[in-house]
Write a structure and sequence with these properties.
nine-stranded mixed sheet, alpha/beta, Dihydrodipicolinate Reductase, domain 2, binds nicotinamide-adenine-dinucleotide, six-stranded parallel sheet, globular, Rossmann fold, 2 domains
């Protein structure tokens, strides 16, 4: 007889679309039901999880949650004060889905209230000081912290990394990362791009130079944390990043360019391209010329935020190294801030570690 599955009590702070949107249907019904992108959809997709509380400053969003999800989670209590929610509810799993500059306090208060695992939205924070406080609080209390840089749970990205690490294409040497379209903002979606670059490079940045896009040249070295609500307040830009392990990355994240999210991994003996519209690898034929094949991407609905929640439960139960840790989130943030600092100093070279300015 198998042991009864534990039921985890989950809660979410911040109820905008990325929290509550309904999931998309799986491409092939035989694979399962849905691909869960939003946090509520993710909790609904994982067996043994009950969403017991949701919180937003805006009461209408609590009503919106009930309209969309009341039949799945009829017992979720609504709050407008997250501290009251933490005081009144025993919460195991906490999603922090507030604007970027409001992640830190909620994570730290959640740990103090005794939550067992946290999934925090990206970027981890708006300052390195906040990131450090979050990481330290979780580490001290041994609470796993996952940062929702979703590409780490995309099957195509996972397959690209597996192939890269297999050595079949030779060692990785250069990375070209491209983000375009009206949402090509550094802190909104550029953080996904930069984090994915670091995930493939498997190293820490040594130095960078950067130039923000036209219209953002006077942005300054700090990020206010508006979080992309207003694209005008979150700049795009270009950067050249040199990593400690010798890898070089060329990053372009610019509004006003073709809508795309793509990373090209240039190896000694081949090339990988993975992104929103591409998943392929290229190798020379033995007799010359180049041959390109599609990546063998696993067909699964365990992707995105649903996979993150499943991993969080595994970390709570068995420990281990998170595949998107607080330190990983801090690395991406330090590069984003380095880009602002370089551009603000006339595209000067910025050496790591960067510090808040
Ligand atoms: N993973 C992804 O693909 C993805 C997509 C979109 C947004 N995000 C991230 O999710 C986070 C939220 O983004 P958003 O655009 O929904 O932001 P938002 O500005 O709409 O804020 C989300 C909600 O948080 C609520 N809120 C703010 N402070 C609160 C507090 N102290 N207590 C309770 N509720 C509070 C707001 O009322 C709002 O409804 C950001 O960090 C963003 O970068 C991630």
């Amino acid at each position: 007889m198998t042991e009864a599955m534990s039921t985890y009590r989950a809660a979410i702070v911040g109820l905008a679309e990325i929290s509550t949107e309904v999931p998309t249907a799986a491409p092939e019904p035989v694979l399962g039901t849905v691909v869960a992108h939003s946090h509520v959809a993710a909790y609904a997709s994982v067996p043994g999880v009950e969403l017991v509380a949701v919180c937003d400053l805006v009461p209408a969003l609590l009503d919106g949650f009930r309209e969309r999800w009341g039949d799945i989670f009829p017992n979720a209590t609504g709050y407008t004060d997250y501290r009251r929610m933490l005081a009144e509810q025993r919460i195991d799993l906490l999603s922090v889905v507030t604007p970027d500059n409001r992640h830190a306090e909620i994570v730290i208060d959640g740990v103090a209230a005794g939550v067992q695992g946290i999934l925090c939205e990206k970027p981890i924070a708006t300052t390195l000081a906040d990131a450090d406080r979050m990481i330290a609080a979780c580490k001290t209390a041994r609470v796993p912290l996952l940062i929702n840089h979703t590409r780490r749970w995309y099957p195509a990205f996972g397959e690209a990394r597996r192939l890269l690490r297999s050595g079949e294409l030779g060692g990785l040497r250069r990375v070209v990362a491209t983000l375009g379209g009206e949402r090509a903002m550094l802190f909104r979606n550029g953080t996904h791009l930069i984090d994915a670059v670091c995930w493939f490079v498997e190293g820490d940045p040594a130095w960078l130079i950067a130039e923000l896009d036209d219209g953002h040249r006077d942005h300054g070295p700090r990020y206010a944390g508006d979080g992309g609500r207003d694209p005008a307040s979150d700049p795009g830009g270009s950067a050249y990043i040199h990593f400690e392990n010798g890898m070089r990355a060329f990053v372009n994240a610019s509004k006003g360019t073709l809508k795309t999210f793509e990373i090209e991994l240039i190896c000694e003996g081949g090339r990988l391209r993975v992104g929103a519209d591409v998943a392929e690898w290229t190798k020379p034929f033995p007799d010359g010329g180049l041959g390109t094949s599609q990546l063998n991407v696993p067909q699964t609905t365990w992707s995105d935020t649903g996979a993150a929640i499943r991993e969080l439960i595994g970390l709570v139960e068995r420990g281990g190294t998170p595949s998107s840790s607080g330190e990983d989130g801090r690395r991406a943030l330090s590069i984003l801030l380095g880009i602002l600092q370089s551009s603000a100093a006339g595209s000067a070279r910025v050496d790591f570690p960067v510090v808040d300015q």
